[in-house]
Structures are given as C-alpha cells and as structure tokens.
Specification:
Shape: rod-shaped
Number of strands: 14
Number of helices: 5
Strand order of the largest sheet: 1-4-8-9-10-11
Strand content: 15-25%
Distance between the termini: 145 Å
Length: about 325
C-alpha cells in the first residue's frame, strides 16, 4: 500500500531572502539525500537502543520479505527524515530510533540511503518507533514545527507512532485518524495490531544477546512471537532434532512391527507344528489301539486253534 502525501507545511524556512526568492520563481534546486547531513552530532542515548533496533529489524525481516517479494521497502535506524528545508539543514529533520517505509527502493540510483527526504520520496513511513531514555517529554512534544509528536503527526503524517519506555516496561502506540494521533487500545494479549503488516507489537520480557530486559517485539496475528535469527536457528535445530528422533522412532516402530510379524509367523508355524504333532500322536495312538486289537484277535485265534487241536487229539484217541 502506498502512502502518498502532500506536505501541508512549507519545506523552506529560515533561509535568506535570495534563496526564498529563488524558491518562489522556481529556480532553486532542492537537495537530495546525498547533499543533506546524515547525523546531527548527538550521541545514541544508551547501549540498549542499538540492540533494540537490531531485534526489531531481525525478527520482522522475513515478514517484510514475504510482503515485498520485489524487495521494495526500507528500514531506518536513527536515520534522518527530512521534511523541511532549514538552516542548518538538520533542523529540518527528525530521526526516529526505528522506522519502516513500504514500497520504496532500498537504494537510490545505486547509492546507499544517507537519509530519507520527503520532498524526494513523498511516501511517509508506515510506522516510527521512539525509544525513551529521559522522561518521555521529548517523544510526546506537540510543539508546532519543532516537537517530535507534532512533526510525525502533522508534517510527515506517519500512520503509526510508537513510544517505547524500557524503564517502565511499556509501549504506547498511536494511529493517525483524521489528521490526529489517537491512542490505540491493546488487544487481549496486550499487543497492538498492525493489520497492514499482519503483525502485532508489544512488550516481551526476556534475554536478547547479553541483556535481560523488557524488549519491544513483534508477534504474528495469531499471537506467535516472530523469532530473531538466533531463535530461528535454535528452532531449526530443535526441528532437526525432532525430525531425527521422529525418524528413529519410526524406524524402531517399523522394526518392532517386523519383529511382531516375525513372532506372529513363528507362533503360527509353532501352532501348526503342534497341530501336526497332535495329529501324529492321534494317528500313533490309533495305530497302537489297532495293534492291541489285532494282538488280542491273534491271541483269541491262537486259543481257538489250540482248542481245536486238543479236540482233534481227543477224537483221534477215541478212534
């Protein structure tokens, strides 16, 4: 989605009369990102800010790549967003601690971006995040033309503006509605939903690198934490281990099934052999019974024969 805007406030201010006159008659040439300062000489407020920016970028990178298959998006970290011409030039810029711009090239004419220039791009960031180091008054300053809150709301017109306070373990998010920032309401998970990105943003208490802190992080629309590179690597390793164990388990189950089938086959063979043995035993018993009957019959016949011979001897003596 493109966020085309028209700047409501003049980009030229605090310049001498000649430059203003040239601007009016159209002969002035507006500077681009290569001609404007890329720093204002101030220090990063604390050591956590660098890691926090890395965590935000790292964990959402895969989502942005999926949303922008052409690679047309940019992420800025403490980079100046120039919204007006001033003297000195850096007075006409604000540098959010982290911001994302959709549908713009990551480089301009083959050059790495030094800053983001609104009169050159005309596309505001979708979201800007500020990390509070002081009391938060700077990030909530609504003073016209100079206050951060005012500049993001009225000049640059960034749809989502977030203020993250690590000391308070909180983040508050604003959405631009009818030209004004309205505080967003967190969902039941305590996250703020960004439907344009299909993600949620909120506070995660945990360890990143060597710091255990309440970090601002991304979740998908189902409430699943978007992992950073180290977590993804760990998850991948866990998945690899789980797949290996699953294969080993499947192999063992297959072996057990083969063993069970072999046992079943052997049991059938044993049962068959036992049945054959029983059959043979029955046949043997039957034969033994027949032999006993035959022996008794022979014994009876022998007795009859002996009796007949005795009778014949008696008869012969009588004669």
């Amino acid at each position: 989605m493109d966020y085309q805007i028209a700047l409501d406030y003049p980009i030229i201010s605090y310049l001498d009369r000649k430059v203003k006159a040239d601007a009016v008659n159209g002969s002035v040439v507006l500077p681009d990102h290569t001609q404007l300062p890329d720093e204002d000489g101030t220090f990063v407020k604390n050591f956590q800010e660098h890691l926090q920016s890395l965590l935000l970028t790292d964990s959402i990178w895969a989502t942005l790549q999926a949303d922008h298959k052409d690679g047309q998006f940019a992420i800025g970290q403490d980079c100046g967003i120039y919204w007006k011409l001033s003297d000195p030039p850096e007075k006409g810029a604000e540098a959010p601690d982290w911001f994302y711009v959709p549908n713009v090239p990551p480089m301009l004419k083959g050059q790495i971006r030094r800053s983001y220039v609104m009169w050159q791009e005309h596309v505001p960031p979708l979201i800007a995040l500020e990390f509070v180091s002081g009391d938060g008054s700077e990030e909530r300053d609504r003073t016209p033309l100079t206050g951060k809150f005012w500049v993001y709301e009225q000049a640059i017109k960034i749809p989502y503006y977030g203020i993250y306070e690590v000391k308070k373990s909180q983040v508050e998010l604003y959405y631009l509605t009818n030209g004004r920032y309205k505080p967003m309401v967190a969902n039941k998970r305590g996250h703020y939903e960004l439907p344009e990105l299909g993600v949620e943003v909120g506070i995660w208490q945990g360890r990143y690198k060597n710091l255990y802190l309440p970090w601002i992080r991304w979740w998908d629309k189902n409430g699943t934490l978007l992992p950073h590179a180290e977590e993804s690597q760990a998850l991948t390793q866990v998945q690899i281990t789980q797949e290996r164990l699953a294969k080993e388990l499947a192999q063992r189950q297959a072996e057990l099934e083969r063993f069970a089938k072999k046992e079943e086959r052997l049991a059938k063979e044993l049962a068959q052999r036992q049945a054959e043995q029983e059959c043979r035993a029955k046949e043997l018993a039957q034969r033994e019974t027949e032999q006993e009957r035959f022996a008794k019959k022979e014994e009876r016949l022998a007795k009859e024969l002996a009796q007949r011979e005795t009778e014949q001897e008696r008869f012969a003596k009588k004669e």
